[in-house]
Amino acid sequence: MEKSKWLKISGEMPSIAGQFNEGLPEFGKAFVGIQKAVCKDGALSYKTKELIAAALAIAARCEGCIAYHLKACLEQGCTREEILEVASVAVMMGGGPSHYYGARAVEAFDDFVAQAASMASV
């Protein structure tokens, strides 16, 4: 079975981002530092932060961001219903083009769920 677009993007991201960070090592170190500082529980749970990041990714229409954050949402235990609501907030803020990307984000989430289910059954 061929990998979905979202699984491909998710698989390529570490290498692509790593190459960029190697070209600008100080920037890469700083960006990773920001991620480490943000991606933990605080006043907001890490799960809530990933839901916010997913909404921003949809509103920004960034496919790499959608793949990264929708996969992280699954890993944080988010449900499809939560993703649908997050997508609706993104559409409210991002307008018509975000409607398309919101639908694509739900598709990405479903692909990550299917991948996790197939790995669990092996």
From the structure above, extract its key features:
6 helices; AhpD-like; 122 residues
Describe this entry's structure for a reader.
The chain has six helices and no strands. The protein has 122 residues and is mainly α. 83% of the residues lie in helices and 0% in strands. Helix 1 packs across helix 2, helix 3 runs antiparallel to helix 4 and helix 3 packs across helix 5. It has a single domain, classed as AhpD-like. The mean pLDDT is 94.
Beginning-to-end CA distance, first to last residue: 15 Å
Structural class: mainly alpha
What's the helix-strand series? HHHHHH
Poorly predicted runs are: none
* Count of the separate structural domains: 1
From the 3D structure, determine the CATH topology.
Answer: AhpD-like
Q: Can you count the beta strands?
A: 0
Q: What percentage of amino acids are in beta strands? A: under 5%
Provide a quick synopsis of the model.
With 122 residues, this protein is mainly α. Helix content is 83%, strand content 0%. The longest helix is centred in the last third of the chain and has 25 residues, at 96-120.
